């Protein structure tokens, strides 16, 4: 059944790509529902909570069908699945069949450290979702993420990534 679904998903995506006027693929915005996109790529819809303020989906590559997504929340958005999750007001990444990568703007408060830690990607392995964090990799059953939950707004967590830190002005004294 999973295989049939995967083939269906691929066919739908190919049809979608074929029907879309071929301008520059990178600048193409698709009117595709976010939770449906997750499901078409084999993921449970609840991986991204509501309320989503706005989002952009564009084609990153055609084979395999890969989409870039940017999700906008009105405010920093907190939701608990297994442990607390945080979505920044701008959350981005790429999604292809069974794999979400290059994520920015999502952190989990890991039970091992109690520290808000960046999540970089999610890979589907059978009925498990394997979450790749900056410091460790953790697998959970996908059933935990089927329900689309509502988040609650909370404070912004500063981005600690090296890229941003290196942009801070250096004070000369
Ligand atoms: C999320 O909020 C909406 C609107 O308030 C509500 O209709 C819906 O039932 C809520 N969903 C969950 C899973 O609590």
Topology readout:
Blueprint: H1 2-19, H2 34-40, E1 54-61, E2 66-72, E3 77-80, E4 84-96, E5 99-109, E6 116-125, E7 128-133, E8 137-141, E9 152-153, H3 162-165
Antiparallel strand pairs: 1-2, 2-4, 3-4, 3-9, 4-5, 5-6, 6-7, 7-8
The structure holds 2-acetamido-2-deoxy-beta-D-glucopyranose (NAG).
2-acetamido-2-deoxy-beta-D-glucopyranose is lined by residues 147, 149-150.
Pfam families: DUF538
Keywords: Signal
Signal peptide: 1-25
Task: Characterize the structure shown.
The protein has one domain: at5g01610, DUF538 DOMAIN, CATH 2.30.240. Helix content is 17%, strand content 38%. β4 and β5 form a beta hairpin. Strands 1, 2, 3, 4, 5, 6, 7, 8 and 9 form a nine-stranded antiparallel β-sheet that branches. It is of the alpha+beta class. The radius of gyration is 17 Å and the shape is globular. The chain binds 2-acetamido-2-deoxy-beta-D-glucopyranose (NAG). The site of 2-acetamido-2-deoxy-beta-D-glucopyranose has 3 residues, from loops.
């Amino acid at each position: 059944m999973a295989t049939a679904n995967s083939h269906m998903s691929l066919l739908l995506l190919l049809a979608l790509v074929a029907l879309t006027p071929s301008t520059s693929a990178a600048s193409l915005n698709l009117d595709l529902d976010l939770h449906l996109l997750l499901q078409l790529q084999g993921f449970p819809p609840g991986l991204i909570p509501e309320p989503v303020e706005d989002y952009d989906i564009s084609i990153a590559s055609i084979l395999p069908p890969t989409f870039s997504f940017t999700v906008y929340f009105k405010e920093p958005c907190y939701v608990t699945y297994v442990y607390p999750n945080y979505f920044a007001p701008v959350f981005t990444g790429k999604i292809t069949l069974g794999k979400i990568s290059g994520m920015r703007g999502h952190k989990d408060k890991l039970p091992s450290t109690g520290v808000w830690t960046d999540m970089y990607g999610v890979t589907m392995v059978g009925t498990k979702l394997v979450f790749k964090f900056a410091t460790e990799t953790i697998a959970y059953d996908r059933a935990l993420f089927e329900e689309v939950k509502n988040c609650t707004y909370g404070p912004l967590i500063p981005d600690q990534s090296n890229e941003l830190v290196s942009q801070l002005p250096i004070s000369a004294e």
